[in-house]
Amino acid sequence: MTDTSDLTPRQQRRQLVGTTEAGMHSLPSVPPGANSDQDGMAGEARGQLATVARRFVHNPQAVFGLGVFAAMAIAAILTGLFWTYSVTAITNTLNAPPSLSHPFGTNSIGGDMLAQVMRGTLQDIEIALLVAVMATVLGTLVGAIAGFYGGRVDSAMMRLVDLILVIPTLVVLIVLANIVAKQANNWFWLAIIIGALSWTYIARLVRADFLSLRERDFVEASRALGATDRRLITRHLLPNALGPIIVNATITVALSITLESTLSFLGLGIQPPNVSLGLLIDQGQDSATTEWWLFVFPVVFLIMLILSIFFIGDGLREALDPKKNRVRA
Amino acid sequence: MEPPALTVDNLVVDFGSGESAVHAVRGISFALAPREVLGIVGESGSGKSVTALAAMGLLPKSAEVSGSISYEGRQVLGLKEKAWATIRGVGIAMIFQDPMTSLNPVYTVGWQIVEAIRAHQNISKGEAMAKAVALLETVGIPNAAERVGNYPHEFSGGMRQRVVIAIAMANDPKVILADEPTTALDVTVQAQVLSALRTALDETQASLLLITHDLGVIAGLADRVLVMYAGRPVEVGTVEQIFYQPAMPYTHGLLGSLPRLDSQGGERLRQIPGSPPSLAGSGGGCPFAPRCPLKADICETEEPQLRPVAAGVVGQRPTVGDEAQPPSPTTTDVEHLAACHFADAVVDLPIASMFPDTSADHEGVAP
């Protein structure tokens, strides 16, 4: 078949068919601009990262969360650098209620509570971020590979996850924390241990998401365009699973703070003179009704910390979801 | 004659093995010439999509494939994933059935077209984006320059399918496989998508393997038609041959079940009684025999092979209704093949007349 003999009968037939099928093959003309959006929310071919940032900024709750979180972090750092009393300083005023010289009061040995709470906040932020990053990266990696490849890879990885899940976390933490508890910079190891035990939830979540996502047509369509497995996982499946991953990362943050408090309560967590909010709460709970400032300030800071992280996570999830595209400027 | 772009030779695809094996495709052969449009029709489960997926190397690992598929003379069946990646998208591109799910919901359409372009071409993002806009304009997306920044959910079904077509033609493939490209769309949108598809073919000079169960789509786009039934081709021919001289009772039945705009009214559509056979069994005989009104003893025992149909002179046969002048005698370089023991007799029957005019009006209440 040559070019002409190939094309001519087709064109002939098109005319023939076109007449018998009521002009089915004519393309209705659409005036340009008829489909332009009315709410002006889309259309600019800008970077997707910029779009996500813009959507995040337009979410009041997320901005509030980010603001509170940043304010707490900055305040904690500044207090550590410039406040009159250091964490380890001991004054002559014992069990004093909040006053101008000690805004958060002092504890039973004369330590300044503002310095302690701020140091605890900073410590918790450090631990929580390290745990969250570690658990999320590890969990996502394992879950993504297990969910994407399925079969034996999946079975092997999920049995490992099951194994870690059935081990009572607290027992492992107590044993391991006991080893690292005596070391000077033990918060780092504490965070590593908590992170190593809390990635399993994210792994299961990501695996479940990948199992359903990999059956979607766009995965096959991308494969049909020559995409490799690695590209499919990192560029196509992962962005679709980001919502649940981020939500779970924020929950991991809260969980890690709780776990750290538990360990501190058992004397295996953060060791004095270093402090964490969990340690302060545990120390202050006995006197919550009498010397309330020992208890209330760390609790308020802990709640603010966790809530602000939740708000940030929620805002991120919404900003990353293209279907939540309504920007109310 | 140029060498074919895609050749499929005696392709067999089984799922599972032993007693429970499902024979999805039981031997299909065809050659897709450059710039040719070959339509594959058949009902659900006849092996159409499996054939396309095999040509794309996308069958699940559980599938057992034999036979040969060669793209531009190169055997592609059994290629490693890495080697496939150099053919998919550039040599052979695919358009999937459901545009609602075949685009990634978290990326803008521009991103997805750019990704397709840059996967195979070494050009900058800016150039690729400019090309993406041009592609969207080609397939008839109004305001393409603005729409590239939109996400798939901001498009209608027909627009999304046009985006999918734009992605398929992004790297000027030699072969496009379209797996029911209009099935998920409503009829008015179908016409626009077909028009976009035709533009894509003209632009890329690609061959098209058009898989559908919509004979109207075939009539509008295809050069040749391959009718599949129970995993095998039962009739191959040009559109004229298939539509005006069907030589297989099944094809007759398909044509008879179509509503016609030129009918006088009052006629009922004729249906093919029964349902397609299970693909698990492998009984001898013609797979269509249980539903065939012309069934004879030989049909039960011997499965007919594809063989040339005696060329009748078009126009001598009675046609249904007052059909306009049928086309001139068909080109001789395309063979008309049919798998029926009585193909030469069937070819002379009026279309669909062999199937009873069943309808609710005629059926009595079962005693």
How does this model look, in words?
The complex is a heterodimer of chains A (329) and B (367). Chain A is mostly helical. Chain A contains 11 helices and no strands. The longest helix of chain A has 37 residues. By secondary structure, chain B is α/β, with parallel strands linked by helices. In chain B, 28% of the residues lie in helices and 19% in strands. Chain B contains 12 helices and 12 strands. Chain B has an 8-stranded mixed sheet with strand order 6-7-8-3-9-10-12-11, sandwiched between helices. Chain B has a 4-stranded antiparallel sheet with strand order 2-1-4-5, covered by helices on one side. In chain B, a hairpin with a 6-residue loop joins strand 1 and strand 2. In chain B, helix 3 packs parallel to helix 6, helix 4 packs across helix 6 and helix 6 packs parallel to helix 7. The longest helix of chain B is centred in the middle third of the chain and has 18 residues. Classes of the chains: A mainly alpha (329), B alpha/beta (367). The interface between A and B is large, with 60 and 70 residues.
Q: Which band does the percent of strand residues of chain B land in?
A: 15-25%
Biggest sheet, spatial arrangement of strands of chain B: 6-7-8-3-9-10-12-11
Number of helices of chain A: 11
H and E string of chain B: EEEHEEHEHHHHEHEHEEHHHEEH
Q: How many separate helices of chain B?
A: 12
* Percent range of helical residues of chain B: 25-40%
Order of helices and strands of chain A: HHHHHHHHHHH
What's the gyration radius of chain B in Å? Answer: 22 Å
Low-confidence stretches of chain A: 1-7, 13-45
Helicity level of chain A? 55-70%
Largest sheet of chain A: none
Number of DSSP E strands of chain A = 0
Q: Per the principal axes of the C-alpha atoms, what is the gross shape of chain B?
A: globular
Low-confidence stretches of chain B: 313-333, 363-367
Beta-strand fraction estimate of chain A: under 5%
